[in-house]
Each structure stands twice: as structure tokens, then as C-alpha cells.
Amino acid sequence: MGLEIRNGRPYYYRKVRRDGKVTSEYAGSGIVAEYAALMDEADRPDKEQQRESSRQQREADRKADQELLSLEQSLNELFTAVALANGYHKVKRQWRKKRQR
């Protein structure tokens, strides 16, 4: 965020991310620019708190995903062991019962 002084007058530009690119958005000049800068400065802790809670949620989701993948792998191994013990085998990724001779 930037309060810029051009020709002795303050101009305020917000930096905004759109479609993965950072662009400058004109917010005002003179007293309006100073007021907008103060308002954005006051909102900054809230935005940082939102970012932190979002990061914590992503971390919790990542851990849950890892636990689910581990559980899925364990269940696949268990199923394979049970199927093999009961006379099944895989043919082209399908489980089939072995023929009795």
C-alpha cells in the first residue's frame, strides 16, 4: 500500500491481487488519500488475523488429508491380504475368484 507524494500532493494507491497479478488501484488524493491510508492501516491487523486463521485451516486440512491417505493405504493392504487368503487374484486390476480344479 502506498501513500505517494506527487507534485507536493498525496495520492493513495492500494495494491490489489487479481487473477494472480498485483495491480495498483487508485484510492484518492489529498485528505481522502490520507484518510484511506489510515483506514487501511487500521484494517491491517484484521487481515493478518484472517490470513493466519486461513493458514492454520489449510495446515489442519493437510494433516487430515495425510491421515486419510494413510488409512486408505492400510485398508487397501488389509483388503488385498483378505482377498488373497480367500482365493482371489487380480486380473487387469479386477479381483476374481480362482477356479477350482
How would you sum up the major sheet? 3 strands, antiparallel
The strand count comes to 5
Estimate what percentage of residues fall within beta strands.
25-35%
**What is the residue-averaged pLDDT?**
86
Distance between the termini: 79 Å
Regions with little confidence, pLDDT below 50 for 5+ residues: none
Strand order of the largest sheet: 1-2-3
Structural class comes to alpha+beta
Task: Give the overall form.
Answer: rod-shaped
* Helix amount: 40-55%
Encode the helix/strand succession as letters. Answer: EEEHEE
Please, could you describe this protein's structure?
With 101 residues, the protein is α+β, with helices and mostly antiparallel strands. It has one domain. It is built from one helix and five strands, in the order βββαββ. The protein has one helix spanning 31-85; strands spanning 2-6, 9-18, 21-29, 88-91, 94-97. Strands 1-2-3 form a three-stranded antiparallel beta sheet. The radius of gyration is 29 Å and the shape is rod-shaped. The model has no long low-confidence stretch (mean pLDDT 86).
Quick synopsis:
The protein has 101 residues and is of the alpha+beta class. 54% of the residues lie in helices and 32% in strands.
SSE blueprint and pairings:
Blueprint: E1 2-6, E2 9-18, E3 21-29, H1 31-85, E4 88-91, E5 94-97
Antiparallel strand pairs: 1-2, 2-3, 4-5
How would you describe this structure in keywords?
single chain, 101 residues, alpha+beta, three-stranded antiparallel β-sheet, two-stranded antiparallel sheet, 1 helix, 5 strands, 54% helix, 32% strand
